[in-house]
DNA sequence: AACGTTACTGGAAACGTTTCCAAAAATATG
DNA sequence: CATATTTTTGGAAACGTTTCCAGTAACGTT
């Protein structure tokens, strides 16, 4: 493995000169530059990142902390993050955390132990503070809607996300427009300060606008990272509340579990029960009937997250918050409310 | 950020002593050890990996190269790999490659540029050579069945996998036992030298044993990383060959696409067409009917892969090949062949 | 021709570890 | 108690970069 020193002695120049060439520093003559590059090629020089990082007191690693990565929804995002990192010369370090882990604590540990330059958070909260930001000790981007909250420290970090509340509201309204009033909502994990909570708010808003009172019995919380338990939980909801005519699932995964649960209960979709969700995973194209979902631009989320982070890192750009939109992917799971239920 | 030097001056000992304590070297007295550890705690010492790696001329990174990571099947494996790496003090570096990329080339590039200590391959070929192994420049474990081929260099690398051929044979036999003879097979990507090919061989073997001739018209190759095109491809198969009564899909994802295709064609499962696959993804519990599949021990694959690799790395253990078994997850997609089709 | 610029280059220190070797201290042996 | 042995410690070099500072060379300007 050739080193800079090897190149230097090979070319009869100083180590510092070689380093300058390799880093495209301006103060070096054209012919020595050529000579050095030629030698580097000839000797198959590969830079030693450890040494570089040590000298520069840095790393080229960006951490991707994801909660609930078994959710297929995240995979395209992870892929996009990795690809974008690669393109910009960074290394993505993936770290999955369990549902009940504290992402700030884990993230902070990661940043110091792996000397990460920045962090991207998937599936975390929406309300980080300056305190959290300084706990991390590195800039971070969270992929959860964070804007428009008066009490948040929006300049402490960046975010890339859809407007969870608005999109949820949109989804539920589509059900209401079809005449549904008994609309259940499927939430994952703790509702508190998460995507779950924002979408729940959207659900509430849509109901409120339509003058439908919130029925706590229609609110169903499950644990997302376990399909079986989710299924169980939804099944009992459907049995307990036979008056349900529609379900809004906050993720495709939950929607798919719900479809199964509905089927298990001997009801059919969409004639008995309509289902809509937010997500856009590939698998939802293959349910029967095809799942009606508000599809998020998954790859774009990943790309934008890296873009923002790198700007903050390299250009000292201010933190920013990007809002993306979903696109309705019409399927066959939403129908007019059954006439018998209207009575 | 406290360094070893800080600890040394704080304790009035030499830098080398501190290093020894931190690395659990034996030659250090109990009380200095205690004193140093106390100081380390007090000063919030975090080791600098770059420096460590530089001195040791190594990295603690293990590369996970995965082809087709959009397949939800891989996610639990990825997670297990990350977890195991963490536990053993390594960092997993995930790298996704496209369907047509050469994993040896990509892997080799990765090993030098990121100075990886070892490699784990997901979704690659089954027939690596000594040449490939030395191209990598680091030990590697592939998660594809590799054993029992006379012409392979089995001591050049390790593997962890189910016996693809045997398991495929088992699956197809289950269909044959139900009276099916017109059994289609769904393969992803290029059949050549991949999991796909091994499972195809199992399919052939089962047919041969039952005296059923291979019908090339029942062999359907798709591209796995695109649900839509897979769906399309399978739909036309079903239309072209209305005599099909059963489908063996080599992955759950393909099976789910097939279920949709069958439904689109107005046929029903399992009364018209039976489906079985190899996989075990969580989502397959939520299809209607529930997918009958031979479930792989996903987490175990990841754990074992890391275990083997670390043994090779740390204890210079010889390369080894681990075979795991699937467990039948009975669903509702396999039924007796329809009497009308028996004629 | 002397000088001041500018363009380029080399030397050396620094980054935070590990590890070899030698020295010092502690302990055992006669 | 002197010596031999073992245990524990310190000093210094090394890992491969980057970068600051000083120095040389080339060049134009008066």
Shape of chain A: elongated
Report the order of strands and helices of chain A: HHHHEHEHEHEEHEHEHEHEEHEEH
Q: What summary fits the major beta sheet of chain A?
A: 6 strands, parallel
Structural class, from helix and strand content of chain A? Answer: alpha/beta
Average of per-residue pLDDT values of chain A: 90
Give the spatial strand order of the biggest sheet of chain A: 2-1-3-4-5-11
Main interface pair? A-B, 43 and 45 residues
CATH class categorisation of the largest domain in chain A: Alpha Beta
Instruction: Give the termini distance of chain A in whole angstroms.
Output: 80 Å
CATH topology of the largest domain in chain A: Rossmann fold
What's the multimeric state? homodimer
Give an account of the 3D structure.
2 copies of one chain form a homodimer. Chain A is an alpha/beta fold. Chain A has 3 domains: 4-45, lambda repressor-like DNA-binding domains (434 Repressor (Amino-terminal Domain)), CATH 1.10.260; 51-163 and 298-325, 3-Layer(aba) Sandwich (Rossmann fold), CATH 3.40.50; 164-296 and 328-341, Response regulator (Rossmann fold), CATH 3.40.50. Chain A is 43% helix and 17% strand. Chain A contains 13 helices and 12 strands. Chain A has helices at residues 4-11, 15-22, 30-42, 49-56, 74-87, 103-113, 130-136, 164-177, 195-209, 227-240, 252-264, 298-315, 339-342, and strands at residues 61-67, 91-97, 118-122, 140-142, 158-162, 183-188, 219-222, 246-249, 274-279, 292-295, 321-324, 327-329. In chain A, the strands form 2 sheets. Chain A has a 6-stranded parallel β-sheet with strand order 2-1-3-4-5-11, with helices on both faces. In chain A, strands 7-6-8-9-10-12 form a 6-stranded mixed β-sheet, sandwiched between helices. In chain A, β8, α11 and β9 form a beta-alpha-beta unit. Chain A is elongated. The model of chain A has no long low-confidence stretch (mean pLDDT 90). At the A-B interface, α4, α5, β2, α10 and α11 of A face α4, α5, β2, α6 and α10 of B. Chain A binds a DNA duplex (30 and 30 nucleotides) through residues 3-5, 13-17, 19-20, 23, 27-29, 32, 47-57.
């Amino acid at each position: 493995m050739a080193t800079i020193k090897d190149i230097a002695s090979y070319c009869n120049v100083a180590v510092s000169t070689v380093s300058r060439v390799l880093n495209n520093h301006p103060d070096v003559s054209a012919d020595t530059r050529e000579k050095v590059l030629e030698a580097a090629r000839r000797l198959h020089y590969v830079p030693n990142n450890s040494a570089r990082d040590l000298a520069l007191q840095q790393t080229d690693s960006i951490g991707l902390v994801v909660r609930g990565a078994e959710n297929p929804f995240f995979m395209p995002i992870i892929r996009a993050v990795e690809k974008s990192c690669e393109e910009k010369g960074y290394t993505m370090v993936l770290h999955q955390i369990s549902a009940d882990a504290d992402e700030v604590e884990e993230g902070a540990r990661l940043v110091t132990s792996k000397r990460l330059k920045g962090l991207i958070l998937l599936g975390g909260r929406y309300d980080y503070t300056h305190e959290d930001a300084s706990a991390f000790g590195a800039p971070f981007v969270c992929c959860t809607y964070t804007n428009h909250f008066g009490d948040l420290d929006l300049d402490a970090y960046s975010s890339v996300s859809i407007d969870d509340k608005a999109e949820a509201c949109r989804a539920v309204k589509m059900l209401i427009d079809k005449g549904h009033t008994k609309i259940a909502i499927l939430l994952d994990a703790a509702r508190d300060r998460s995507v779950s909570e924002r979408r729940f708010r959207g659900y509430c808003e849509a109901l409120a606008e339509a003058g439908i009172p919130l029925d706590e019995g229609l609110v169903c919380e499950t644990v997302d990272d376990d399909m079986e338990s989710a299924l169980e939980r939804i099944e009992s909801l459907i049995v307990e509340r036979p008056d349900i005519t529609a379900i809004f699932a906050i993720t495709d995964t939950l929607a798919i579990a719900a479809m199964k649960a509905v089927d298990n209960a001997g009801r059919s979709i969409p004639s008995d029960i309509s289902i809509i969700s937010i997500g856009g995973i590939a698998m939802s194209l293959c349910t029967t009937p095809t799942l009606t979902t508000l599809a998020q631009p998954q790859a774009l989320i990943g790309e934008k997250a890296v873009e923002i982070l790198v700007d903050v890192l390299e250009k000292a750009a201010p933190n920013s918050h990007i809002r993306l939109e979903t696109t309705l992917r019409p399927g066959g799971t939403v129908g007019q409310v059954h006439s018998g239920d209207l009575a």
